[in-house]
Structures are given as C-alpha cells and as structure tokens.
C-alpha cells in the first residue's frame, strides 16, 4: 500500500462549480498535510497546509483533514478557469522532512 | 529573478550518455532535494542534502548521483542514462528552521532515447 493515495482524475468541471479533491494516507503518525498546485510546465507551489485535524480556509480554498479516517480533502468554491492545474497532496515525513506525494489530480475548469 | 533555478530546462540525450542537471537557489536554504515526476506516479525523492557535507539517498537513487558544490548549488547526474529515466526532474529547497514548505524549481524535462 502506498503511503499516500490520491483520486487520479482527470476532473473536468464548469466554471463556478465546487470541486472536491481527495487523498488518503496510511501512517497515523503524520501531522502536517499539504496541497501543492502545479500549472503545466511549472514546478509545484504550495497552496495550503494544515496541521493535525480540522479545516483551514483561504479565500475560495478549504483544506480539511480527518485523522480518524486518514482522509484529506481540498475544496475549491466558485472554481475559475485559472484554477485549471494539477493538484498534489503531500505529506512531510522522516528526518529530512521529505515530501511523499499523491499521484496528482488534473483539474480543468471550463469557461 | 526566480529563487530556485534549474538548467537545462529541456534535454534530449542518448542511452549510455552521462548528463548533469543543475540547481541553484538564492533563498539561503540549507536543505535541498531532487525529485522526479512521472505520469500517474506523482513526485518521488531521488536524493536529498542537509548541507554541503551531508547527502542522503531517497526512494529511487539507483542510477543517479548528486553533488552539493555549495549551499546554493545541488546537481544531479545520470551516470549512464537509460530510457526509463525519461521524466520531469525537480529540485526543491527548504529551510530547516522555518517550517515544512519546500520551494520547487521550474523543472528539467529529460528525454533519453
């Protein structure tokens, strides 16, 4: 079993839709949970991170962690064509805090 | 100017050739990482470095080597390139003192024929 599994997509939605992106993880010791966004032909950039359980909101984006079920989600409200990108969940671990990534979900928001 | 730069951005090489990918950063971070990205597999860690004298293997280090020439420079070498090393390669940096965020370069797209 991979440490971090992500719904593969691709996902295509109309502009204005609510988007839900999801990952599961296997190690209950994980504490930090991150979402990176990667535009085509660019490097990933941090979108949001949360520590432990609960929700964190930043504008149209909400990151949610449910540690009891080892489930993390990213919600995008009022999605825009500029949100079209690949979204990667990532969890830092180990002494080097290297990131273990999900496989990524490619999102397309249609105008 | 970008904080993390990678050269070259694109490279085509032949099986058996030795090639080097370079990464430079102006963020002053001590930790540097090399990842590769393949479709459907996300990013996987190749090597990481805590500082100039501390280099460690990651999940998929076979066939690769690295050199940390200075705090700001971390290069990745493919000693004898093979086609299944065709991938997108990313360098990342992190400060050990200021949180979990890693900052990624723009990537190098490598094709091994």
Quickly describe the structure.
Helices cover 0% and strands 58% of the residues of chain A. Chain A has strands at residues 4-6, 11-14, 19-25, 32-38, 45-51, 54-58, 61-66, 71-76, 85-93, 98-101, 105-110.
Oligomer: heterodimer
Helix content of chain B: under 10%
The most extensive interface, with participating residues per chain, is: A-B, 22 and 25 residues
Low-confidence stretches of chain A: none
Query: What is the N-to-C order of secondary-structure elements of chain A (H for helix, E for strand)?
Result: EEEEEEEEEEE
Q: How many angstroms separate the termini of chain B? A: 33 Å
Q: What's the SSE pattern of chain B?
A: EEEEEEEEEEE
Assign an overall shape of chain A: globular
Shape of chain B: globular
Summarize the amount of helix of chain A as a percent range.
Answer: under 10%
Kindly describe this structure.
The complex is a heterodimer of chains A (111) and B (113). Chain A is mainly beta and 111 residues long. Chain A contains no helices and eleven strands. In chain A, a hairpin with a 4-residue loop joins β9 (85-93) and β10 (98-101). The radius of gyration of chain A is 13 Å and the shape is globular. In chain B, 0% of the residues lie in helices and 58% in strands. In chain B, a hairpin with an 8-residue loop joins β9 and β10. The A-B interface holds A 4, 6, 8, 32, 34, 41-46, 49, 88, 92, 96-99, 101-104 and B 4, 31, 33, 35, 40-45, 48, 50, 56, 58, 90, 92, 94, 100-107.
């Amino acid at each position: 079993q991979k440490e971090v599994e992500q719904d593969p997509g691709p996902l295509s939605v109309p502009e204005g839709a609510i988007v839900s992106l999801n990952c599961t993880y296997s190690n209950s010791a994980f504490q930090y949970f991150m979402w990176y966004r990667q535009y085509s032909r660019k490097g990933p950039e941090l979108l949001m991170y949360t520590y432990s359980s609960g929700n964190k909101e930043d504008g149209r984006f909400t990151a949610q962690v449910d540690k009891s079920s080892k489930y993390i989600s990213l919600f995008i409200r009022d999605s825009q064509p500029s949100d079209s990108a690949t979204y990667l969940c990532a969890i830092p671990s180990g002494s080097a805090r290297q990131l273990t990534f999900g496989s990524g979900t490619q999102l397309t928001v249609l105008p | 100017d970008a904080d993390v730069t990678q050269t070259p951005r694109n490279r085509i090489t032949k099986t058996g050739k030795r090639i080097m990918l370079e990464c430079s950063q102006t963020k002053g971070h001590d930790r540097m990482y090399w990842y590769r990205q393949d479709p459907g597999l996300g990013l996987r860690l190749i090597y990481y470095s805590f500082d100039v004298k501390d280099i460690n293997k990651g999940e998929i280090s076979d066939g690769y080597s690295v050199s940390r020439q200075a705090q700001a420079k971390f290069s990745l070498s493919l000693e004898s390139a093979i086609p299944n090393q065709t991938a997108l390669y990313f360098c990342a940096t992190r400060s050990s003192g200021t949180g979990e965020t890693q900052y990624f370069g723009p990537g190098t797209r490598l094709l091994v024929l």
